[in-house]
Amino acid sequence: MEVVGLRSLSTKSNSRSLVGPFNLKHFFKVWGPGLVVMLADTDAGCLITAAQSGAQWQYTMILPQLLLIPILFMAQEMTVRLGIVTGKGHGELIRENFGLGWAILSAGTLAISSIGALLTEFAGIAGVGELFGISKWITVPIATVLLVGIAFSGSYRRVEKIGIVIGLAELAFIVAMFMVHPSLSAIGQGLVTVPYRSSSYIYLVAANVGAVIMPWMIFYQQGAVVDKNLSPTVLHKEQHDTAVGTLITQGIMIVFVITFAATVGQRHGQVSLNTVGDLAASLTPFLGAATAKILIGVSLLGGALVAALVVALAGTWGITEVLNWPHSLNEKLNRSNFGFYLMYALAHVIGAVLVLINFNLVSLSITVEVMNALLLPIVLGFLLLLEAKVLPSKYRMHGWYKWIVTSCCLLVMVFGLYMIGPTLKLW
């Protein structure tokens, strides 16, 4: 079976990659894009969705999170092969193979989606600050300066390392799960219970699909492996990086589901879980006010900051690739790349300003959800077409693995389109 994605997971390949002493510097020469994009995947909006899932449907929401692990890996692994083998970003490949019109459509919807996602992240940052009595007029500007400054360092590897360190703060919430002592028998029962007849359950599953597989992730990881100048010789290691990142991000989602299922879920979810403050308040009776604030604050702040970094880069890479502008983080600001850095900075500034002036975020967030649902089939469709068209035969999917990946992507597209109708009714 000539499937790179499968061969990379073989025991033989694993043993080769683990030979020799561990070297942190060498490790980060290859690993990183998969880890940072997956940590960004569990942003403030995703974690709130996971909390709502556990509160409303208890442990029955663990199974969908487990099933999303291979689907998420399959989609992101394709971007790894496309980026490493072709040396080109996602937007650039669309422009070259399908024309400027399709590329502009993809980049335009990506831009709207990215701005919407940035609003969610800045709202999350503001919410964490308010948990501790700090005004958003302090936290949001500081976060904006920090995020813009990181990217202006002139090194993709440095940006990546900072993103991973910040994102790993999400793991702090594991402490909360152990503190609430979830029932193992109840978890087991939840794994075999699927209330598929309930429309609200199916809708929440669809929301989780949209929360886990996001269009900007595809643009980011493909752009990242290109900016990191990775060659096909390290393809297997980068696939491992993606696999580990997938397990971490879904593990964090499952931790949130279990924690809120074991606490708020036992009260039949009769609480509002729409903001950072709502999450902390709902766990206060079980963890204590201080502990709830710290664990919620640290985990959501880590997720929001790394997501803001990744989302802005994904949008900027995608748009500048389509416009055929210079778009590398490995060059410091100069005349030729001024447009790239300006676009990245403006994305953060616009998101921050809209949050600070209390723009109608509810209406806009609904619009963004619909846009994501529409964008996901377009992005996944192009991903499958590019994989089949631009890669040499030895790097393409073949046989049963190809059909599994295609079927999973089609299923995600259907769930994305399914969300449009119910979401519009909320307007």
Task: Summarize, please.
Helices cover 76% and strands 0% of the residues. The protein contains 21 helices and no strands.
Write the layout of secondary structure elements.
Blueprint: H1 4-7, H2 11-17, H3 24-30, H4 33-41, H5 44-57, H6 62-86, H7 90-98, H8 100-131, H9 136-151, H10 156-167, H11 174-179, H12 184-191, H13 199-212, H14 215-227, H15 235-262, H16 276-287, H17 289-323, H18 338-356, H19 361-390, H20 399-418, H21 420-425
Helix pairs in contact: 4-10, 4-14, 4-15, 4-17, 5-13, 5-15, 6-13, 6-14, 6-15, 6-19, 7-8, 7-17, 7-19, 8-9, 8-17, 8-18, 8-19, 9-18, 10-17, 13-20, 14-17, 16-17, 17-18, 19-20
Question: Can you walk me through this structure?
Answer:
The structure is a single chain. Helix content is 76%, strand content 0%. By secondary structure, it is an all-alpha fold. Helix 4 (33-41) crosses helix 17 (289-323).
Task: Identify the notable features of this structure and list them briefly.
single chain, 427 residues, mainly alpha
Model regions low in confidence, pLDDT < 50 over at least 5 residues:
1-20
Distance between the termini: 49 Å
Structural class: mainly alpha
| Dominant shape | globular
Task: Tell me the major beta sheet.
Answer: none
Query: Helical content, roughly?
Result: over 70%
In total, how many beta strands?
A: 0
Total helix count? 21
Which percent band covers the strand fraction? under 5%
Rounded average pLDDT: 84
Spatial extent as radius of gyration: 21 Å
H/E series: HHHHHHHHHHHHHHHHHHHHH
